[in-house]
Amino acid sequence: MAKLKKVMAEHLSKHRFEHCLRVSDYAVKLAKQNGLDQQEAALAGLVHDYAKERSQADFLAKIDATGLPADLKKWGNPIWHGVVGAAFVQDELGIEDPTILQAIRLHTTGGGHLEMTTLDKVVFMADYLEEGRDFPGVETARRVTDESLNQGVFYQLAHTLSYLASKEQVIYPKTFDAYNDWAQYLK
Ligand code: GDP
Ligand code: FE
Ligand code: FE
Ligand code: FE
Questions:
Q1: Is the pLDDT of residue 180 over 90?
Q2: Among residues 92, 105, 115, 167, which is most buried (max CB within 10 A)?
Q3: 19 alpha carbon to ligand 4 midpoint, in Å?
Q4: Using CA atoms, how far apart are residues 117 and 138, in angstroms rounded to an integer?
């Protein structure tokens, strides 16, 4: 982990690197609560935003090089840094574990309740709840997630969707799909 932290620090601003350290810590807390391997959670949390500060040109080239669907190109950094970011983590950090790579891929948009592993949910929630986050409702979100990881995932999806809609932002279809799937499963 020490070497990985050094590489992360070299690729990210101080602010973003420190966020990654806090996500790693919060992922360990959630791993303990949910019977998940803590090392795996710490690692996935640390590297989840590895590609966040790459250029648009880098992402577009990676989409071509890895054979990802070309329609991804119409999105932008918020979607790419997870979905395409996993390929940078694999190629540049040498992390091959498919469970870690999937957690990175899903960390922004989530996935349906059958699609997400416990690790995916832990990274998704740790990114939202790490100790540096202070959006309105974060305390409620932490409480809900302490009681139920699944309810926490749904809380985040519902609140992120309403937030994006209130800002009249485009919404990635998989974010909608994930929301609908969790709503049907949990209600
Ligand atoms: P961060 O990388 O630690 O800042 O956090 P995330 O990876 O979770 O999210 C990055 C940004 O993407 C946030 O501003 C989210 O609100 C935004 N986001 C999440 N889902 C979607 C979506 O479906 N569409 C768009 N356009 N943005 C999204
Ligand atoms: Fe992210
Ligand atoms: Fe997130
Ligand atoms: Fe993040």
A1: yes
A2: 105
A3: 7
A4: 23
Q: Whose CA is nearest to atom 8 of ligand 1?
A: 108
Per DSSP, 75 falls in state S
Q: How far is the CA of 14 from the centre of ligand 4 (A)?
A: 13
Residues with CB under 6 A from ligand 1: 19, 49, 52, 78, 82, 107-109, 127, 160, 164, 169-172, 175
Neighbour tally for 164: CB within 10 Å: 15
Confidence of residue 182 (pLDDT cuts 50, 70, 90): very high
In the block, tokens 């950094």 appear at 77
Instruction: Average the pLDDT over 51-76 and give the result.
Output: 97
Among 8, 13, 18, 108, residue to substitute to test ligand 1 (most atoms within 8 Å of Cβ):
108
Whole-number Å distance, alpha carbon 187 to ligand 3 midpoint, is: 23
Q: Which amino acid is at 12?
A: L
Residue 148: what pLDDT? 98
Report which protein residue has its CA nearest ligand 1's atom 12: 78
For residue 64 the two structure tokens come to 């071509």
Residue 187 has pLDDT above 90, yes or no: no
**What six digits make up the tokens of 157?**
């999806």
DSSP 31-78: HHHTT--HHHHHHHHHHTTTTTT--HHHHHHHHHHHT--GGGGGS-HH
| Structure ipTM | 0.94
CATH topology assigned to domain 2-186: Hypothetical protein af1432 (1.10.3210)
